[in-house]
Recover the amino acids of this structure.
């Protein structure tokens, strides 16, 4: 589970950098906040329809990610360098302090690396195929160690333009998660007080 | 007649040598655990079995933390270390509980019973009627950002009860987190990766220790920059046995060389030295092979004490050889006839002392006693049967000065001019004895008896801090008629334990019922899930998840077997639940392991009222046993003295017998008193030394009592030599780093010196000396 978090976060963080590679446009840096809306669809075998959730996210480099699911019901997940916390209607349903996540440091290496255009950490684990043009590019990521039984991902496809528009993660058993992003806005401002409080809450032990 | 005896003895000695050579050829294994010297607890076999099983499981565990600033380096080093340990073949498995295969089996074991298994938190929520919270949590996991929910699981367990149960299983090592198949913890920028192993054999096997610790050290040497901390009985045992073996060889060599020098200097010719070495060698050979034949194996401590036998075994041959100085001595046979009563009586009384040792049900002490008895008899027979035939020496004339000096002690006790000093000495001894005995206190803590490496202890503390509390040696033993009853008992105990945890008396606990609830609880859980979750919420949950409505005829997989519950037997057979095997000792006999036990008394008090549950503290139990046997050793000493008395009285009359027993008696009182004056606590090992002081002290007294006035200088020379050799062997043990051995050595050093000092007094009451004594005193 946490591994998914790692990759999603790494990818999310990498959005502007991907853009930078192809278009030499803005890169995400500290002091900025990227906000937007998302649709997450999980295609699970045996389910009539995908599990679909929608909401908004805010990514503040160096501070963390807030992932607010609004429909079908409100779940807030906050990830910061200090840990991860999930809340449903104000009730905490999950808390993982960074001290219990030894790979947190690795995650932030990847995250930080991706933010500054260093793909090494990600490419260590995945083979990256690039495609498309500057305004509509694609990435296809496959694990380098496909035979690893602990690797929960078969492939990741990313499609984007100025920002990342869509990420699809395929799991070994064929289940898929698809994330679609829209209305993304990059602002050079600190997180709002509300956001700052949420980010701080993930740091409590 | 003697010729026949000598030949028979030769045959027997050759046989013993042959057997010993055979055993040495096969490779002798020595036991090194101090606890093996202790008696098996006789009263409660159930408790003993539990003690053994838990102590064994704990003792076989090896933990190491491999730390480096770089996570990958630490992980690689940990993997290398694990491989190195496995390659020794001394390790059963590496990494209890975290391999993927085992987790899969764990899932397979629990999955069919998912509606009977509830985490404590879920059970509380459902009992409180808060089923929605459970349902919402499942939905948040399914829809939420961090959710990695297996589709198959969600279909079959839409409330995700099983993942909740699994993540709440009480695994120890609380601060560690699984990270790509390895347990690790990060602190101050250092990643520590756990390497855990279970030994294939006992941590006290020397061979295993050498190979495992050797491989461990070699692997660590090849990892520059990586910090490794270790924890495990095998490391402590290895350090301990290394000390013991080094000591045994150093002290043994010192004692042997010292004895050879002493005898060589005293007699100034090789004959007596060779005779002594022969008696000693034969004694050691028959003693060693005899006890190997009796016990099959020997404890390293028996070897350590046994090698000190040197000092006693040479007494007889020294006494025989010293008669070379006797101006009245004739042929070797004459000389033997002359000393035979003394050494025979000495042997008999010494054997009585050692036989008292045999009465103590301590396996190691029996080995020492058997070793000593067989060795002493061997040395005695060698002196009596062989030495006169081998002896070609003529009377020695060089020792006039030495003899006069040796006789000085006798003069001190006999001559009038020393009367004032004697009085002062006796009064001083009485005072020291009274003060020392008053200050003497007993301490039976078994932990103080083994030398523990400070560095290892520091590493152990560091590991405990880094990984969270480790499992305590103390545990709760739950006894019931069968497994179901035992599981119920634990569930009834859970509230008490949670209270202890909240108070901080313990950091955590594992009980079989946490992994396999009782059938009663499983049925209750199923009913609870049906009424509080399925009936009101299942349809809505399935709809929210986009699952088709549940088949009204399908009430979950458990409906196929209404009484189908997960049994402890199933769980054990699957071998998928980590540590469970160590918690279930037998039908209805379960262990509740405690982590981070800080207040044993609180735990004992909390479970005091619960039938079939008790706190077991193996260390305290062993200490209590040591106390019991310390008392017994004192009793044995008294008994040995009483048994010697008739023998002595038969020989010297009732008054003479009492005089003969006076020197060793004074030593028995004064040696513990000196221990008290030194500020040491009196332990079982001090007490055991008293048994030997009595046996050896009586030898000296008998030699003196047997001595005619003309032989006094010669006798005193023999006693001097005997004392010095005894001090060289037993007294040297006072310098041991092993507290138990040191205690023994100190007591021997003091006691033997005192027994020697007072030895001439033994002659006072003997009839054939009375006249001359009176004449002198006048």
């Amino acid at each position: 589970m946490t591994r998914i978090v790692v990759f999603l976060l790494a990818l999310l963080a990498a959005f502007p950098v991907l853009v930078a590679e192809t278009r030499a446009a803005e890169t995400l840096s500290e002091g900025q906040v990227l906000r937007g809306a998302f649709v997450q669809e999980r295609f699970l075998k045996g389910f009539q329809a995908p599990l679909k959730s929608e909401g908004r996210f805010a990514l503040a480099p160096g501070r963390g990610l807030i992932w607010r699911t609004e429909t079908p019901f409100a779940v807030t997940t906050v990830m910061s360098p200090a840990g991860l916390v999930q809340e449903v209607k104000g009730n905490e349903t999950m808390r993982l302090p960074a001290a219990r996540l030894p790979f947190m440091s690795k995650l932030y290496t990847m995250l930080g690396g991706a933010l500054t255009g260093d793909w090494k950490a990600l490419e260590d684990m995945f083979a990256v195929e690039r495609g498309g043009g500057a305004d509509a590019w694609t990435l296809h990521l496959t694990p380098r160690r496909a035979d690893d039984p602990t690797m929960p991902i078969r492939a990741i496809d990313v499609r984007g333009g100025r920002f990342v528009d869509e990420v699809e993660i395929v799991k070994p058993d064929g289940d898929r998660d698809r994330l679609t992003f829209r209305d993304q806005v990059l602002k050079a401002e600190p997180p709002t007080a509300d956001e700052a409080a949420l980010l701080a809450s993930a740091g409590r032990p | 007649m003697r010729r026949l005896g000598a030949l028979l003895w030769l045959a027997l000695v050759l046989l013993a040598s042959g057997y010993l050579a055979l055993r040495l050829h096969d490779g002798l294994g020595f036991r090194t655990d101090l606890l093996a010297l202790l008696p098996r607890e006789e009263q409660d076999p159930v408790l003993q079995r539990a003690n053994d099983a838990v102590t064994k499981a704990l003792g076989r565990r090896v933990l190491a933390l491999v730390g480096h600033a770089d996570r990958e380096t630490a992980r690689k080093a940990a993997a290398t270390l694990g491989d190195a340990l496995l390659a020794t073949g001394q390790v059963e498995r590496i990494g209890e509980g975290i391999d993927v295969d085992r987790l899969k089996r764990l899932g397979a074991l629990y999955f069919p019973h998912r509606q009977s298994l509830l985490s404590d938190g879920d059970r509380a929520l459902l009992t409180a009627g808060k089923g929605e919270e459970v349902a919402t949590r499942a939905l948040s996991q399914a829809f939420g950002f961090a959710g990695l929910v297996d589709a198959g699981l969600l279909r079959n367990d839409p409330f995700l009860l099983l993942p909740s149960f699994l993540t709440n299983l009480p695994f120890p090592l609380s601060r560690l987190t699984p990270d790509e198949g390895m347990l690790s913890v990060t602190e101050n920028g250092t990643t520590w990766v756990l390497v855990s192993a279970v030994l294939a054999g006992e941590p006290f096997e020397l061979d295993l220790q050498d190979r495992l610790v050797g491989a461990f050290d070699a692997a660590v040497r090849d990892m520059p920059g990586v910090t490794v901390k270790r924890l495990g009985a095998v490391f402590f045992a290895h350090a301990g046995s290394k000390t013991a073996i080094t000591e045994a060889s150093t002290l043994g060599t010192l004692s042997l060389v010292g004895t050879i020098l002493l005898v060589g200097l005293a007699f100034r010719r090789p004959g007596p030295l060779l005779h002594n070495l022969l008696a000693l060698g034969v004694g050691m050979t028959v003693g060693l092979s005899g006890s190997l034949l009796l016990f099959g194996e020997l404890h390293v401590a028996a070897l350590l004490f046994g090698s000190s036998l040197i000092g006693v075994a040479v007494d007889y041959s020294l006494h025989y050889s010293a008669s070379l100085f006797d101006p009245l001595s004739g042929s070797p046979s004459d000389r033997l006839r002359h000393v035979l009563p003394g050494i025979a009586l000495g042997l008999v009384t010494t054997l009585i002392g050692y036989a008292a040792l045999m009465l103590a049900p301590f396996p190691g002490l029996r080995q020492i006693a058997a070793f000593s008895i067989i060795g002493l008899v061997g040395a005695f027979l060698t002196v009596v049967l062989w030495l006169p035939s081998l002896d070609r020496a003529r009377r020695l004339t060089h020792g006039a000065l030495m003899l006069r000096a040796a006789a000085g002690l006798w003069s001190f006790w006999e001559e009038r001019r020393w009367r004032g000093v004697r009085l002062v000495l006796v009064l001083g001894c009485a005072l020291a004895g009274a003060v020392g005995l008053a200050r003497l206190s007993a301490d039976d803590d078994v932990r103080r008896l083994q030398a523990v490496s400070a560095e290892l202890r520091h590493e152990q503390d560091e590991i405990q801090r880094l990984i969270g509390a480790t499992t305590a040696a103390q545990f709760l033993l739950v006894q019931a008629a069968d497994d179901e009853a035992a599981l119920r008992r634990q569930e009834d105990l859970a509230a008490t334990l949670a209270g202890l945890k909240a108070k901080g008396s313990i950091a955590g606990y594992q009980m079989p019922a946490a992994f396999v609830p009782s059938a009663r609880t499983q049925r209750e859980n199923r009913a609870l899930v049906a009424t509080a979750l399925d009936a009101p919420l299942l349809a809505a949950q399935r709809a929210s998840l986009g699952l088709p409505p549940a088949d009204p005829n399908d009430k979950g997989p458990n409906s196929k077997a209404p009484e189908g519950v997960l049994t402890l037997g199933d769980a054990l057979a699957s071998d998928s639940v980590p540590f469970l095997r160590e918690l279930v000792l037998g039908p209805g006999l379960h262990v509740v392991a405690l982590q981070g036990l800080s207040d044993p008394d609180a735990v004992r008090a909390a479970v005091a009222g619960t039938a079939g549950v008790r706190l077991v503290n193996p260390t305290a139990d062993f200490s209590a046993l040591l106390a019991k046997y310390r008392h017994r050793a004192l009793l044995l000493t008294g008994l040995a003295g009483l048994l010697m008395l008739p023998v002595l009285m038969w020989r010297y009359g009732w008054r003479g017998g009492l005089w003969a027993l006076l020197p060793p008696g004074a030593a028995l009182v004064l040696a513990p008193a000196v221990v008290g004056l030194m500020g040491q606590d009196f332990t079982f090992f001090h007490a055991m030394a008293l048994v030997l002081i009595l046996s050896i002290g009586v030898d000296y007294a008998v030699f003196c009592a047997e001595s005619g006035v003309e032989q006094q200088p010669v006798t005193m020379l023999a006693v001097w030599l005997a004392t010095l050799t005894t001090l060289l062997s037993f007294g040297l043990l006072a310098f041991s780093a092993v507290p138990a051995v040191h205690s023994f050595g100190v007591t021997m050093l003091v006691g033997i010196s005192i027994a020697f000092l007072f030895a001439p007094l033994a002659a006072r009451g003997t009839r054939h000396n009375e006249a001359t004594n009176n004449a002198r005193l006048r």
Summary: The mean pLDDT of chain B is 82. The CA atoms of residues 196 and 513 of chain B lie 25 Å apart. The longest helix of chain B spans residues 618-677.
